[in-house]
C-alpha cells in the first residue's frame, strides 16, 4: 500500500487549522457578546445605585399628619385634600393607605366605617376611596350650592377686617359658589357692595365709570385707593414730665386760685 500523498495531507492539515480558527473566532464572538451583556447589566446596576444614592442624599419632605376627622361636614372639605396629599407624599397604597386613613379618624368615625374595614379584610380590597366616598355621601348637602351663593352675595367687610383678608374671603366664597364665570360687573358690584362705607364712598366719588372696569382692574383700584387713604400710624405720645413740687413750677393760673 503506497504512502498517502503529501500534498493531500497538507491540504487536510490546512483545512483542520481553518476549522479550528473558525471555532476560535466563534468562541471569541460569544465571549464578546457575553461581555457586552455583562457591561449592560453593570450599567443598569450603576444606574440603580445612583438613583438609590440620590434618594438617600435628598430625602423627600414629609407632610405633617392631618388632624383626625371628627365627622363634621365643614371639616371634611379641608380634611379630604389634606389626607389625599399625605397619601401621595408618602406614596402609600393598598392596605398601608387604608390603615393610615383609618388611623386619621376619630374613634366615633372609625365605628361608623367599621363595616368598610371588615369588608376590605374579607375581600382583600384595600381602597381608601371607599372611606372618602362614604363620608362625602354622609356629609352631602343638597342645598350647598344655594347656600354658597347666598353667602357670596351677602358678603360684608367686617370692621376689624383688612382689605387683604376681605379680598381673600371674597375669592374663597366665589370659588365655593362657582361664580367665577359670572360677568365682571356682577362680581364687581357684589365686592363693592360689601366694602366698608368710607372706602366705598371714596371709590364712587373718584371714579364715574367704576362698574365698567374689568374685575382685575377694579381690584387694583380698590387696593391702591385703600393704601392711599389708609391713616398713617400715629406717632408715639411723648412721655409725661414728672410732676415737680417746687413752688416755682406752679402754673400761674393755679397760683392765683390758691391765693
Automatic annotation (TrEMBL):
Residue ranges of every copy of the Retrotransposon gag domain listed in the record: 140-197
Region (Disordered): 224-259
Keyword Secreted listed: no
A Pfam family assignment: Retrotrans_gag
Coiled-coil region(s): 11-52
Listed InterPro entries: Retrotrans_gag_dom
Superkingdom, taxonomy of origin: Eukaryota
Biased composition (Polar residues): 242-259
Record's keyword annotation contains Coiled coil: yes
UniProt protein name: Retrotransposon gag domain-containing protein
Native source organism of the sequence: Aspergillus tanneri
Amino acid at each position: 500500500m503506497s504512502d498517502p500523498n503529501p500534498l493531500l495531507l497538507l491540504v487536510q492539515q490546512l483545512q483542520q487549522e481553518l476549522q479550528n480558527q473558525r471555532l476560535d473566532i466563534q468562541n471569541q464572538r460569544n465571549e464578546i457578546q457575553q461581555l457586552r451583556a455583562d457591561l449592560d447589566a453593570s450599567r443598569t446596576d450603576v444606574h440603580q445605585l445612583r438613583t438609590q444614592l440620590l434618594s438617600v442624599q435628598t430625602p423627600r419632605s414629609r407632610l405633617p399628619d392631618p388632624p383626625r376627622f371628627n365627622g363634621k361636614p365643614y371639616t371634611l372639605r379641608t380634611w379630604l385634600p389634606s389626607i389625599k396629599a399625605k397619601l401621595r407624599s408618602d406614596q402609600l397604597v393598598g392596605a398601608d393607605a387604608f390603615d393610615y386613613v383609618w388611623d386619621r379618624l376619630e374613634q366615633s368615625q372609625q365605628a361608623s366605617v367599621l363595616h368598610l374595614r371588615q369588608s376590605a379584610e374579607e375581600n382583600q380590597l384595600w381602597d381608601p376611596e371607599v372611606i372618602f366616598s362614604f363620608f362625602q355621601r354622609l356629609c352631602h348637602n343638597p342645598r350647598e350650592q344655594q347656600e354658597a351663593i347666598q353667602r357670596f352675595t351677602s358678603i360684608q367687610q367686617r370692621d376689624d377686617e383688612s382689605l387683604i383678608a376681605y379680598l381673600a374671603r371674597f375669592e374663597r366664597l366665589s370659588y365655593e359658589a362657582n361664580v367665577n364665570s359670572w360677568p365682571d360687573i356682577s362680581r364687581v358690584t357684589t365686592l363693592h357692595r360689601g366694602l366698608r362705607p368710607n372706602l366705598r364712598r371714596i371709590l364712587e366719588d373718584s371714579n364715574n365709570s367704576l362698574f365698567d372696569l374689568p374685575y382685575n382692574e377694579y381690584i387694583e383700584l380698590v387696593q391702591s385707593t385703600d393704601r392711599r387713604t389708609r391713616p398713617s400710624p400715629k406717632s408715639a405720645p411723648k412721655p409725661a414730665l414728672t410732676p415737680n413740687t417746687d413752688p416755682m413750677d406752679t402754673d400761674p393760673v393755679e397760683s392765683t386760685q390758691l391765693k
